[in-house]
Structures are given as C-alpha cells and as structure tokens.
Specification:
- The chain has 302 residues and is of the alpha/beta class.
- It has 2 domains: 247 residues, 3-Layer(aba) Sandwich (Rossmann fold), CATH 3.40.50; 35 residues, no CATH class.
- An 8-stranded mixed beta sheet has the order 3-2-1-4-5-6-7-8, with helices on both faces.
- Bound molecules: nicotinamide-adenine-dinucleotide.
- The site of nicotinamide-adenine-dinucleotide (NAD) has 28 residues, from α1 and β6.
C-alpha cells in the first residue's frame, strides 16, 4: 500500500484533456474535476438549441478560473472524432488525457433491433473510440505519454433489450487491453483502461437513483476516472467498476481446463469432461493473448 501521506495530490496542471459527451451526466463531472485540478479541457457534446450543453460546461469551467473549449462535432464519424482532437491540438497544442464517454442507448430485443440502431450504438460507443482515439494516440505516441479511459458498462455481463449496447461496451474492453499491450511493447508511458460507471444520470436506472440518493452522484465516478488519468496511476488494460462511492476491478478469467492430450478429441470425450473443463478452481487471468497461449500450452503439453 503506498503511504498517501508521502504522495503529492493528483494534479493535472499543464495537461490537456479531451472528454467526449461531456455536456451532461458523467462526462460533465469528469470535465469539471479535471479542470478544477488544473487541466485544460476540450469539452465535447452534440450541438443544442440555442447553445450546446458543452458550451455551458465550458462556461462553468471558466467561471471557476479554469481553461476549457467546447467542440460540438459527433464522435460517431472519423471526421467528427478528428475535429474534436484537432481542436485540442489547435488551441492547447497537445492531448495528454482522453476520456471517451459519449453514449446513447436504444432498447430492443435482438430480433427486432433495426440495423440503423445497431450501427448508431456501435458507431458512438465502440467506433467512436477509434474516431477520437486514433488521432489522440498519434499525438500521445509522439510524446511518449498519455492516459486513456474508455467507457464500458455492467452491460458487459449481458443486458436484456440492449444487445448492441452490450456488444459495443464489451468491445471497448478488447480495445483497452490491446492499447495497453501496444504501449507496453513500444515502451510508451501510455495507459488505457475502461471505466464501468454507475451514476444517477438520464441513462441510469431510475430504481437505483431512488434507492441510493446522493451516493449516485457522477462525482463518485469522476474521482476514479481522475485517478486512472493521473501520472501516478500505472494500471493499464483493466476494467474498473465505479459508482455509489464503490470501486472494484473486473477481469477476464479462464479455467485451468482439461486436455485429452490425444487426437482426435471426440464429442463424447468433451461431454464427459465438460464439467472438469469448466471447473473454476484455480482459474487464471491471462495478461494478454500470448499469456493465454502459455496457459493452454501448460495444460496440453505439461
Ligand atoms: N449512468 C450510468 O449508470 C451508466 C452505466 C453504464 C455505462 N454508462 C456510460 O457512461 C457514459 C456516460 O453516460 P451518462 O450516464 O452520463 O449519460 P448522459 O446521457 O447524461 O451523457 C451522455 C452524453 O453523450 C452525448 N453524446 C451522445 N452521442 C454523442 C455523439 N455522437 N457525439 C458526442 N456526444 C454525444 C450526449 O449528448 C450526452 O450529453 C455513456 O457511455 C454510458 O453508456 C453510464
């Protein structure tokens, strides 16, 4: 355990942050906290009438003595994502911190979900991470430093009437793990993690808002995101659940499994050993795809 009395507070002075979907809800809380801790913040959200919610958040940041600019391009297209990141480069000269938080939901059972809806949900949550992530990553890679937080959800465990949303949010997990792997391989001080938030916003479950009251404040997630974005945090490629002041680590695991160590493996052998293959005792949490191969090799080859 680090002795927090010996460690400096978390401060983003000199850092430039981009937060998507930051006009309201969780993104707004992230933008306000980062600005209050010294970051210059590019606040992204969709255009609104007469002004975008992003402009209102920037006004709050500036009124509190911070630095921020609004950008109302959509994360759902490569051009929109590039425009958001280029605003940061044009105005503040760099991007150190990226939070891709923008989100939409649309409820439908699998068979009934129109493909336009599937494309919209994947476009904002999952492809949006490429649209803003690629131009931000290029700038971070040039300077060898960056902190990225993408947004997953408890829907990764499966969600009734949210098949596209759950798939997009689970895709984000594979992406942060791959970014973490790439940064490690290239020796870059760039981290990428996925936050699975819970907060009382318009996307949240009404019954949880009722039951949890103030604990459902987005501020209780913002502190976790700010830690993941800090220089002090070296955690990468992980899923962090946060909400109601609770913080937890989610991980992908694999059972030790069973191997016949003979060819061919018959369906009957699989049937007879399936319970053993699925026995969770001594499960492993592979660090990456190569590590997963090593675990399988140990079981098959001994
Ligand atoms: N609130 C929760 O409990 C919860 C739970 C799990 C995951 N999440 C995720 O957290 C993120 C934030 O959600 P929230 O609860 O604050 O919702 P919210 O609706 O309050 O905020 C989402 C913001 O994203 C913006 N947005 C939507 N499409 C956009 C686009 N194409 N380009 C730019 N901005 C766009 C919206 O205008 C909105 O301001 C989302 O990714 C959501 O899926 C939230």
């Amino acid at each position: 355990m680090p002795d927090s009395a010996m460690m400096p507070g978390i401060d983003f002075t000199g850092r430039v942050a981009v937060v998507t979907g930051a006009g309201r809800g969780l993104g707004r809380a992230y933008a306000l906290l980062l600005a209050a801790r010294g970051a210059a913040v590019v606040v992204n959200d969709l255009p609104g009438e007469p002004t975008s919610a992003a402009d209102e958040v920037v006004a709050e940041i500036v009124a509190a003595g911070g630095r921020g600019v609004a950008v109302t391009d959509s994360v759902a297209t490569p051009e929109g994502g590039a425009a958001i990141v280029h605003r940061a480069l044009d105005v503040f000269g760099r991007v150190d911190l990226l939070v891709h938080n923008a989100g939409v939901v649309s409820a439908s059972t699998f068979a009934d979900q129109p493909m336009e809806q599937v494309h919209e949900v994947l476009g904002v949550h999952l492809l949006g991470a490429w649209h803003v992530g690629q131009p931000a990553w290029r700038d971070m890679e040039k300077r060898g430093y960056g902190r990225i937080v993408l947004t997953t959800s408890m829907a990764q465990f499966g969600h009734f009437r949210q098949p596209a949303y759950a798939a997009a949010k689970t895709g984000v997990i594979g992406l942060v793990k791959s970014l973490a792997h790439e940064a490690r391989t290239k020796g870059l001080d760039i981290t990428a993690n996925a936050i699975a938030p819970l907060a009382g916003t318009r996307l949240a479950r009404p019954e949880a808002k009722e039951l949890w009251g103030d604990l459902m404040s987005p501020d209780n997630v913002a502190g976790v995101v700010a830690y993941l974005l800090s220089e002090q945090c070296q955690v990468s490629g992980q899923v962090v659940h946060a909400g109601g002041s609770h913080v937890a680590h989610g991980f992908l695991a694999q059972t030790r499994g069973w191997a016949a160590r003979a060819t061919p493996l018959t369906p009957e052998q699989v049937r007879d050993h399936f319970a053993q293959a699925c026995d969770p005792a001594g499960y492993e949490t592979p660090a990456d795809a190569n590590d997963q191969m090593r675990i399988v090799e140990r079981t098959v080859l001994g």
